[in-house]
Amino acid sequence: MEEEMSKQWERLTLTEEEKEGVALKLQPTISTMRTNHFCLLVMIVVEKFINREAFKSTMSKIWKCDSWLQFSEVGTNKYLIEFQSKKDLDRVINGRPWSFDRWLLCIQPFNGSMSINEVSFSKEEFWIQAYNLPFDYMNQEVGIQIGNSLGRFIKVHVDERGIGWGKFLRIRVELDITKTLLRGLFINVDGKKTWVYFKYERLPSLCFKCGVIRHVKNSCSNQEGREGQSQYGAWLRAPIVRENELLFKKYGESPDHSPKSEP
Asked: N or C: which end of the chain has fewer CB within 10 A?
């Protein structure tokens, strides 16, 4: 809705009075600037209107904040959320991705100098599991390379030696949710091509026709995906990883020398 209104304004011819505008001389109040530090912007990525009160009530229960939080509707399925506590704000930011009724909550940092129409809501962070890597390549450096091929690399789950042996290599990446998710890619190891496939933790609803989480034009443009077998599906979702499975734990040594791990 907001995007359509912006395009409509661009087509209009402004009057002289409208062009002249108003030069604002006021500065943001100190209280407003302080509040900026404990706010974030959220867009529910869904092509329909959602129940506002159900959303607010559900997310308040899921986040289990120690202090109060306040929702201000700033657009269609878009909210400015204010937290009383920085600890609660950080917990929500670090716990991404979140979803409501399987629809992604695209979270963006709050910038008081921007209007809601200037916020793109096109990026979100995910943990991605990379399967079928040779053991020698389950390490931090490979995680960085794969992460940057998917989007913007954030971190990789490895031990203090930089090794991530296990069923998969776990990589956190900021993805462009308006682009098709990569199901996998070939890596070239000593002239041998190996297919590495991906699964996405807490993956929300996406288009099974084109593999996109958020359609920019609010509808799928993939004509080929409308016929025949879907090229994307629920199999892209990673199985739930238990906390104890994320520990690189050694046995038979002093606890003081146990390797570090990143949840």
From this structure: C
18 token code pair? 């409208």
pLDDT at 31 over 60: no
Q: Which of 84-98, 168-182, 235-249 has the lowest mean pLDDT?
A: 235-249
Separation CA 125–CA 103 (nearest Å)? 15
29-118 in CATH: which number? Answer: 3.30.70.330
Q: pLDDT-derived band of residue 224, with 50, 70 and 90 as boundaries?
A: low
Strands 78-83 and 152-156: unpaired
Closest Cα to residue 238, out of 204, 202, 214, 262?
202
Domains of the chain by residue range: 29-118, 123-257
> Which pLDDT tens digit goes with each residue over 48-106?
999 999 999 999 999 999 999 999 999 999 999 999 999 999 999 999 999 999 999 99
Residue 178's SS3 state is coil
Instruction: For the chain, list the strands marked E by DSSP.
Output: 39-44, 69-75, 78-83, 98-100, 103-109, 123-131, 152-156, 169-176, 184-189, 192-200
Whether the Cβ atoms of residue 112 and residue 33 lie closer than 8 Å to each other: yes
* Alpha carbons 222 and 227: distance in angstroms, whole number: 10
DSSP string spanning 29-65? -HHHHHHGGGEEEEEE--SS---HHHHHHHHHHHHT-
